[in-house]
Fold FMN-dependent dehydrogenase.
Amino acid sequence: MDWRTVHDKAVENMTTAGLLYEDGNADIDSGTNDVDTLAWRRYGILPRTFHNVGDIDTSVTVGGLHIDTPIFGAPTAYHRLASKQGEISSQNGMHRAGSFIVYPTNASEPVEHFAQEAQGEWWQQVYLFDDRKVSAGFMERSVEAGAKALMLTLDCPGYRRDFGFRNGIDGTWEGSSGNFPNMHMTDWTLNLATSITPKDIQWLKDLSGLPVYVKGVMRPEDAVTAMNAGAAGVMVSNHGRRQVDGVVPVAYALPRIRKALGRDAEIFADTGIRTGGDVFRALALGANAVGLGRPIQWAAAAGGEDGIVDMIGKITDELAHTMNSAGVSRIADIDESFLVEGQGPAAIASYGVGF
Ligand SMILES: Cc1cc2nc3c(=O)[nH]c(=O)nc-3n(C[C@H](O)[C@H](O)[C@H](O)COP(=O)(O)O)c2cc1C
């Protein structure tokens, strides 16, 4: 199934509130998530010849973990909105597809139950609370459960979020927090830290003994600050266009951050990535691997664990085929020389062919 068919099936299988939460954006002006997808596709792919492409390898190593595809599950809240087993089927589907998910703090399945039922390695997404004692308590549970790395989200500071305003969610939906059963949706966003400093990165490292990636970085100087403060790497992300209304696309921010951090830094990217061609573009713009958010939940809603295996397999096949016909057989060799800005299908469709 391609992702559009997957989405159509998810529309059939999810509740209205669940789907509105899943597909929602920051505000009225954000357009749809397609804005980021189109931004990746402003880049045309420039194929090369005279390269042996008999042995395409889509595997990469992230945080010391070797995965068969450069696609992992970006952390998204409440997987039970999509399937009964919540984050468990998402992780098991991604594991069968040769990868993993970043399990969210705001999960449907409590971390202990998730860890018991989930196969393979997984990472823990971290939302810090104003009350760091609450965060420390949860970190302890998560480390004990077996998280292999942390991903600290920086782009979602505490604020009273009125989820019902545009999307009709009234707080009585299926999304309740498995890890913090007493925190209602609105309390949840209110309790998030309004001040996260670079020192929190070291604090988390000391507390957990795990590598700490930071997520939601869009400016080169913030990426440099995070790395200097001890981050293992950065995830360039605009949170699936759900935080800042009118935010710039990740395709704009990513190459600038790669340039600032240099060749060796571990950099991930997400938002709007839907096809093998999109993955290829993100890798060429500087990502070592990419995250998919909504598509994994849609696939879970469309076909459970098997739906995820099928969709990730399909996108990875598309990537392998793009690599094969563009003349590159290793992920590490996909660089900016394969892209021409403004000559991709989305750009040409908007202003006509031009050289
Ligand atoms: C329903 C939903 C819930 C999300 N929840 C979280 C979260 O709890 N923590 C977080 O860091 N990012 C969260 N995100 C952002 C994703 O990690 C990711 O950045 C985004 O979904 C990527 O864009 P995509 O959905 O277009 O792939 C969420 C995104 C969605 C769609």
